[in-house]
Amino acid sequence: MIGYDFRLHTERATLEGCEYVEIQRGPFAEDYWRPGSVYVRADVFALFDGPLRGRCGYEDIHSTIDLDRDQGAECVAVWRGAARELKAGHTMTAVRMLGLGHVPLLDGELRLQAAAVVALLRGLADFVELQLSAREHIAIIGL
């Protein structure tokens, strides 16, 4: 195993290491580590940021962007679809949906940790969907 941390962190105290992506309620207000945010290790988020690449000013895990409802809905659809495919054992379909290249070691990691990856993708989708149902924007911040 490569050793990815496929957890969706809801508390800053559970974070290990130094690079994370924070997803905040509302637009970015020059404020980090806000209560109610969720965190994903940056190396893991980079695996799932396909729906963001090339949109809304997002370049990579070090970007800081505001995501509107339409953009969020696109991400939610991709993350939920990839989770369904991975749960069904269709790793390559999930990899393509996420915009990842075929890397046998990574494919194997996703297959080995499918339950954790599915939980993370669903958790990301649920958080984004819930937050955008109550507000116009959320912020995605590379820390």
Give the secondary structure arrangement, pairings included:
Layout: E1 20-25, E2 38-41, H1 42-48, E3 64-68, H2 69-87, H3 91-97, H4 104-112, H5 114-134, E4 137-142
Antiparallel strand pairs: 1-2, 1-4, 3-4
Helix pairs in contact: 2-3, 2-5
Describe this entry's structure for a reader.
With 143 residues, the protein is of the alpha+beta class. Helix content is 44%, strand content 15%. It is built from five helices and four strands; from the N terminus they run ββαβααααβ. The chain has helices at 42-48, 69-87, 91-97, 104-112, 114-134, and strands spanning 20-25, 38-41, 64-68, 137-142. It has a four-stranded antiparallel β-sheet. Helix 2 packs antiparallel against helix 5. The chain is globular, with a radius of gyration of 14 Å. The two termini are 25 Å apart. The mean pLDDT is 89.
Write a concise synopsis of the structure shown.
The protein is of the alpha+beta class and 143 residues long. Helices cover 44% and strands 15% of the residues. It is globular, with a radius of gyration of 14 Å.
Brief descriptors of the model:
alpha+beta, single chain, 143 residues, 4 strands, 5 helices, 44% helix, four-stranded antiparallel sheet
Radius of gyration (CA) equals 14 Å
List the total number of helices.
Answer: 5
Strand content: 5-15%
Strand order of the largest sheet: 2-1-4-3
Judged by helices, strands and strand pairing, the structural class is alpha+beta
Terminus-to-terminus distance: 25 Å
Which segments are poorly predicted (pLDDT under 50) over 5 or more consecutive residues?
Answer: none
SSE order: EEHEHHHHE
Number of strands: 4
Largest sheet composition: 4 strands, antiparallel
Described by the principal axes of the CA atoms, the overall outline is globular
| Mean pLDDT over the full residue set | 89
Considering DSSP H and I runs of 4 or more, what fraction of the residues is helical? 40-55%
